Amino acid sequence: MKVLVIEDEHKIANALKEGLSQESYAVDVCYEGQEGLNAARYEAYDLIILDRMLPGGMDGLEICQILRQEAIHTPILMLTARDMIRDRVAGLNAGADDYVIKPFSFEELLARVRALLRRPHEALGETLQAGELSLNTVTKEVIRDGQTISLSAKEYALMEYLLRNKGKVLSKDTIINHVWDFDADILPNTVEVFITYLRGKVDRPFKGGQIIKTVRGFGYKIDA
Ligand code: CA
């Protein structure tokens, strides 16, 4: 899952990047409104964390309004420094999905991030499943045939992304856009390499057949 953080306060932005990366999210940061707006327009994010107050003429409310007018419906979590009803309502009216008030605890923010990412997949709940494999998005536990599987952060992120899109064929580009951030070192075979690692852990040791399927010439998929 890939998150865009638009926040001019470097300390907060960098803390969010660090914390969310530890939770296996791919995170891009923009410290400036216009740059953030362009990133939100042209890259595929699963969630945007947007500061309400940004310097340089374009604030969070405006960015939110513009994105919604342009029919970009990526969930937006607004950060707001002012604990005023008026301000919160303005954010929601501008098209934000939720907000947190600064200063916030990382745990609170994370809970809201999870809730927003869950929304379109509500029926799936916290646990994603494919055959005998289950992945808990809160505890990060991956289990197949009753056996706990230990995955690296990137393998986990890839597995979660594949499971959230069960039944769809995902191209390598789509996978890169949602699982790796833009400062990541990506080689032409990065996705294949990680799919191989993942299969070595979730498929190869088990009987019951392959969960991660290759769709020749298109990409990968997990059968619904
Ligand atoms: Ca700010």
**Count of strand segments:** 11
CATH topology name of the largest domain: Rossmann fold
Classified by CATH, the class of the largest domain is Alpha Beta
Number of discrete helical segments: 8
Overall geometric form: elongated
Total domain units: 2
Give the H and E element order.
Answer: EHEHEHEHEHEEEEHHHEE
Bound molecules: calcium ion
Largest sheet: 5 strands, parallel
Give the radius of gyration. Answer: 18 Å
Record the strand order, biggest sheet: 2-1-3-4-5
What is the architecture of the largest domain at the second tier of CATH?
Answer: 3-Layer(aba) Sandwich
Word description of this protein:
With about 220 residues, the chain is α/β, with parallel strands linked by helices. It has two domains: about 1-120, Rossmann fold; about 125-220, Arc Repressor Mutant, subunit A, CATH 1.10.10. Helices cover about 40% and strands about 20% of the residues. It contains eight helices and eleven strands. It has helices at about 10-20, 35-40, 60-70, 85-95, 105-120, 155-165, 170-180, 190-200, and strands at about 1-5, 25-30, 45-50, 75-80, 100, 125-130, 135, 140-145, 145-150, 210-215, 220. A hairpin with a 3-residue loop joins strand 10 (about 210-215) and strand 11. Helix 2 packs parallel to helix 3 (about 60-70) and helix 6 packs across helix 8 (about 190-200). The longest helix has 13 residues, at about 10-20. It is elongated. The model has no long low-confidence stretch (mean pLDDT about 90). The protein binds calcium ion. Calcium ion binds near residues 9, 51, 53 and 54.
